[in-house]
Design brief:
The structure holds two protein chains of two kinds. Chain A is mainly beta. Chain A is built from two helices and nine strands; from the N terminus they run βαββββαββββ. Classes of the chains: A mainly beta, B alpha/beta. Bound molecules: zinc ion.
C-alpha cells in the first residue's frame, strides 16, 4: 500500500480536519496504512472513531492495522452539480466498503479509482491512497 | 384519553416560491401571526415557541418582535428534515404536561440568503463530514443514493419503484395550485431524466424552495375556539436507533433499519392508533427511496414490500391503499424540510386537501429518515 501510481494532486478538494479522535487514522494514511480503532476491553472494532466502545462502554482502545481488503457494500456515481473540485472528476464513483476484518462494524466511505470498471455490491476491493492537497486519503480499487 | 389533549388550532403558510421576497425573520413573524389569527388568538396568548436548529431566527427573538409577554416554554430540535414532527411533538408534550398553554412551531426558509448548505463545505471538513466529503460524498443526494442502492440490492427494489413515488407525488401536485411543480410526469420521464447521483435521477430529488409555515399547538379545549376544527395530535414520537451517523447512516448493524423504524415503534407504542387505522400519510420525501423505506418502517407493508406497494398504485390518490404526499410532497409541492408535509396532514384532517381522502380519521406525518427523526399521527375531532 503506497501512494505510487495515484493521480496528481487535485487542487481545492476538501480535506479532513483532524481532531483528537481522528488524527491517528489520518496519520496512518499518510504512512500508507489503513487502521481502525479496536476496543481492548471487549475486542470490538469501531468506525468512525469515538472515545467509547458502544458495546461495552470502555474508553480503552488501540489502533490496529487492517488488511485494506473489503467488499463493496454500496456505491454511487455522482454527476453535477457538484463542488468545483469534484465537478472536474465527474462522473465519479464513491462507495462504502465493508472491511474484511469486521464487515458489520467497519464500513468506510471512499472513492473508487477512476480507471476501475463499474463495481457491483459484494465485489472485493483493495485500499490504495491518494494525495489531496497536503493530505493522504484512501482511494479504493477493485480486485 | 386521560389528561390534556393537544391539538393544532391554527396554521400559517406563505406561498411556496423560488424567492420568498422577504427575510426569514419577517416571513417567520408573518406566518406565526397568520397561524395565531386562524386559531382565534394573538401573540399575548403565546407562552411557548419551539424551533429547528436550522432556523435563523431564535425563540427569544420571536418573543421580542411579537411582544410575547411571558415565554415559559422554548426549545429546539436539530437534524434539519428530521425535526419538524418532533417540534410539534415537543409543543404537544408541553401542552399535555401543563407547562404551556399555547406553543408556536415555525419554519421560514429563504434560500437566497443561505444557498445550498452542502455547497458551503470549506477546504477542511471536520466532524462526521471528514469521513465522507473528502471522498466526494458531499450532497444529501449522494448520502441517500448510497443507502438507496443497498436497499435495491437487499430488497429487490428497482429504480422504477422510485419512479412510482415521483409520479404519484407529481399527480397529486397537479391538483394543488400551491405546488411548485405541477406538470404530470410518467415513469418514462423519470427513467430518462438526468442522473444526479446514481441510482438517483432528477425526479427522485426534492425541489429547492422558499417557504414559511407555522402551527399553533394548544389544548383541545382552546383549539375549539378557532376558525377551523381542531386537529388532534393523537401521537408523537422521535427515534434514532443504534450507532446512527447523521445522513451517512451506514455504520449500524442494519442501516436499512432506519431511524424511522425506531420512531414508528415509539409512535405506536404510545397510541391506540395503528397502521390499519391510518387512511393517508405524508412521508418525508427529500428523495423518493425514503418514501418506500418509510412505508415499511411505519408498518404500512412488510419489510422489502415498499416497491410492490408503490407499483400496485398504493400511493395514488384516490384509489390507492394509502394515498401518500397528497399535496405533492417535497418532490413536487415544495421543500421546506418537511414542514409542508405537516401542513398537508393538517389539511387532510380538516378536509381541505386538494386530494382529499374521504372519511379520513387519521393521517400519519413523518420527518426525514436519513437523520434522527420524528413522526405524528394527526386525528379528526368528531
Ligand atoms: Zn468494548
Amino acid at each position: 500500500m503506497t501512494a505510487a501510481g495515484t493521480p496528481p494532486p487535485v487542487a481545492d478538494r476538501p480535506v479532513p480536519r483532524r481532531d483528537e479522535g481522528s488524527a491517528p487514522f489520518w496519520e496512518a494514511c499518510a504512512q500508507g496504512r489503513l487502521v481502525a480503532q479496536r476496543c481492548t476491553a471487549c475486542g470490538r472494532f469501531r468506525f468512525p472513531p469515538r472515545p467509547t466502545c458502544p458495546a461495552c462502554r470502555s474508553f480503552e482502545h488501540r489502533w490496529e492495522d487492517l488488511s485494506g481488503r473489503g467488499r463493496v457494500w454500496s456505491w454511487i456515481r455522482a454527476h453535477p452539480p457538484l463542488l468545483p473540485a469534484f465537478a472536474e472528476l465527474a462522473p465519479y464513483i464513491a462507495l462504502v466498503v465493508a472491511l474484511d476484518e469486521d464487515p458489520i462494524h467497519l464500513r468506510m466511505i471512499g472513492r473508487l479509482e477512476p480507471a476501475c470498471p463499474e463495481p457491483a455490491i459484494g465485489d472485493p476491493v483493495q485500499v490504495g491512497f491518494e494525495r489531496v492537497v497536503d493530505q493522504v486519503i484512501p482511494l479504493w480499487r477493485l480486485g | 384519553m386521560s389528561g390534556r389533549q393537544a391539538a393544532i388550532a391554527g396554521m400559517g403558510l406563505l406561498p411556496f416560491s423560488k424567492n420568498l421576497g422577504r427575510p426569514e425573520r419577517t416571513a417567520a413573524l408573518e406566518v406565526i401571526l397568520q397561524a395565531l389569527a386562524e386559531a382565534g388568538m394573538g401573540a399575548d396568548d403565546v407562552d411557548g415557541v419551539v424551533r429547528t436548529t436550522m432556523e435563523s431566527t431564535t425563540d427569544a427573538h420571536i418573543a421580542f418582535c411579537l411582544g410575547i409577554p411571558d415565554l415559559r416554554f422554548f426549545g429546539e430540535v436539530g437534524h434539519g428534515g428530521g425535526s419538524g414532527c418532533a417540534l410539534v411533538g415537543h409543543a404537544a408534550l408541553a401542552v399535555e404536561a401543563g407547562v404551556a398553554e399555547v406553543v408556536v412551531v415555525y419554519r421560514a426558509r429563504n434560500r437566497s440568503t443561505g444557498g445550498r448548505p452542502w455547497a458551503q463545505a470549506g477546504n477542511q471538513v471536520g466532524g462526521d463530514a471528514q469521513w465522507s466529503v473528502p471522498f466526494g460524498v458531499v450532497r444529501p443526494v449522494d448520502q441517500i443514493a448510497m443507502l438507496a442502492r443497498r436497499y435495491m440490492h437487499e430488497c429487490g427494489i428497482t429504480t422504477r419503484h422510485f419512479g412510482e413515488v415521483a409520479v404519484a407525488c407529481r399527480s397529486h401536485a397537479a391538483r394543488n395550485p400551491g405546488a411548485q411543480m405541477r406538470d404530470p410526469i410518467t415513469l418514462q420521464d423519470h427513467a430518462a431524466a438526468r442522473p444526479v447521483s446514481e441510482p438517483l435521477r432528477l425526479f427522485d430529488c426534492c425541489l429547492e424552495s422558499d417557504g414559511a409555515v407555522a402551527f399553533v399547538v394548544t389544548t383541545l379545549e382552546r383549539a375549539r375556539g378557532g376558525a377551523r376544527p381542531p386537529v388532534l395530535i393523537r401521537a408523537h414520537a422521535q427515534g434514532v436507533g443504534p450507532e446512527h451517523v447523521v445522513m451517512t447512516s451506514y455504520h449500524s448493524e442494519n442501516p436499512l433499519q432506519s431511524t424511522a423504524t425506531f420512531a414508528a415503534r415509539n409512535l405506536y407504542r404510545r397510541s391506540e392508533v395503528g397502521p390499519n387505522d391510518i387512511q393517508c400519510a405524508q412521508l418525508y420525501d427529500a428523495f423518493s427511496p425514503l418514501v418506500l423505506m418509510s412505508l415499511e418502517a411505519y408498518g404500512f407493508c412488510g419489510p422489502g414490500e415498499g416497491g410492490a406497494f408503490a407499483e400496485d398504485g398504493g400511493l395514488q390518490w384516490p384509489a390507492g391503499r394509502l394515498p401518500v404526499n397528497t399535496s405533492g410532497g417535497s418532490l413536487s409541492e415544495a421543500y421546506v424540510h418537511g414542514f409542508n408535509l405537516i401542513a398537508e396532514g393538517v389539511r387532510q384532517v380538516r378536509g381541505t386537501s386538494t386530494a382529499q381522502v374521504a372519511g379520513l380519521e387519521h393521517c400519519l406525518v413523518s420527518s426525514g429518515s436519513g437523520v434522527p427523526t420524528s413522526a405524528l399521527i394527526l386525528g379528526a375531532y368528531r
